[in-house]
Amino acid sequence: MTSPVRLALLGCGTVGSEVVRLLHAQSADLAARIGAPLEIAGIAVRRFGRDRGDLPVDPALFTTDPLSLIKSDDVDVVVEMVGGIEPARTWLVEALRAGKSVVTANKALLAEDGGALHDAAAEGGADLYYEASVAGAIPLLRPLRESLHGDRINRVTGIVNGTTNFILSAMDATGAGFAEALEEATELGYAEADPTADVEGFDAAAKAAILASLAFHTRVGAADVHREGITEVTASDMASAKAMGCTIKLLCIAARGVDPQGGETVSVRVHPAMIPLSHPLASVGDAFNAVFVEAEAAGQLMFYGRGAGGAPTASAVLGDVVAVARNRLAGARAASESAYADLSVRPMGEALTRYHISLDVADRPGVLAAVAGVFARHDVSIATVRQGSAEAGSGRSEDADLVIVTHVAPDAALAATVGELRGLDTVRSVTSVLRVEGAV
């Protein structure tokens, strides 16, 4: 009988516990798929004594010394589900340099210092798999890394954070404000007690960096990603989007571009944006994720499903475990990192975007001309203008609401336009600024 493939599990929280349960429940099928049984060599945890329910595992396998477990000659594959930068980076570099394949769901580490992991994998001749790091159970990274490897990807647009998608979907459906929708998300378990990583876009930015690195064969880190969260999105913004036949989503966008000298670049950004209801991503509701890929030969592709949760993430982790175990038995190794293109990352100010701008202006002759003059000074072309009276009961009977949607322009020019509008005498306030994606 073929010797078992021995696993070191780092972490036994929500995802780790599900991995243990699936390893136990599907042991026979997994062994048949791999050609050898999978066995747990040890499980590293922060402390003993935590209630782990009816987890089907020998308590003697638990340890609080992850490095000793990783260094053990009895370990073939290290599965990391702890998260964070350190000490996870130290553990995984140690494992990879020792020739032990690594499966991780650690998006923060991959976005912060994925290069160190890939370098260690190359040094040790080991596999590094991380399907679960971006979109849970959705098969996404392997198609980018393998299935589309013969194609040229031009753009990746995605909803990759379930918490923010639930909040924005609730705001759209009920007319609630951000605070009320966040409270509902917290009560239902979609938002953490501290939701900062989600609502401020940090989680999505890390995932955007991973997607861009794979799609464009370029090392892209979290620091390269322009990031904005959803905390400033209001019920009024949602109403304006509806009036235009749009909705608002937190999007991660990675796209090829060209710099002023004609060199190829990539821009990577995360921010809320209006998208038309006809766009495939507009119908992605609740806490679901979806990623829309545009490639030259394959055309438009969309990957959709649950992007978070213990069981979906564990499914992706086990898929990677099966792949690295089979490689190990065959004496093979997966394709190494592809970063040959080494494209420069374009600053957000040079990215071509469109703005939806809502203004509260004085309702008197010449106001529209003054506003239009600001756009002209910054070489920003206006696509549509909609003017209406101030809302009844607002106490602003001498004011008017002005809604402007621009054509595509460099983001820096659009931001400068908004900045000058804020200082215009006839503009009482800039009540909303949102980027627009797609034709509206």
Automatic annotation (TrEMBL):
Regions annotated as coiled coil: none
Any one of the GO BP annotations: methionine biosynthetic process
Name the UniProt record assigns to this protein: Homoserine dehydrogenase
EC number(s) given by UniProt: 1.1.1.3
Keywords: Amino-acid biosynthesis, Methionine biosynthesis, NADP, Oxidoreductase, Sodium, Threonine biosynthesis
Necessary cofactors: a metal cation
Pathway(s): Amino-acid biosynthesis; L-methionine biosynthesis via de novo pathway; L-homoserine from L-aspartate: step 3/3; Amino-acid biosynthesis; L-threonine biosynthesis; L-threonine from L-aspartate: step 3/5
Family according to the record: Belongs to the homoserine dehydrogenase family.
Enzyme class, first EC level, given as a word: oxidoreductase
Any one Gene Ontology molecular-function term assigned to this protein's record: homoserine dehydrogenase activity
Annotated source species: Micromonospora yangpuensis
Binding site for NADP(+): 10-17
Binding positions for L-homoserine per the UniProt entry: 192
InterPro entries assigned: ACT-like_dom_sf, ACT_dom, Asp/hSer_DH_NAD-bd, HDH, HDH_cat, HDH_CS, NAD(P)-bd_dom_sf
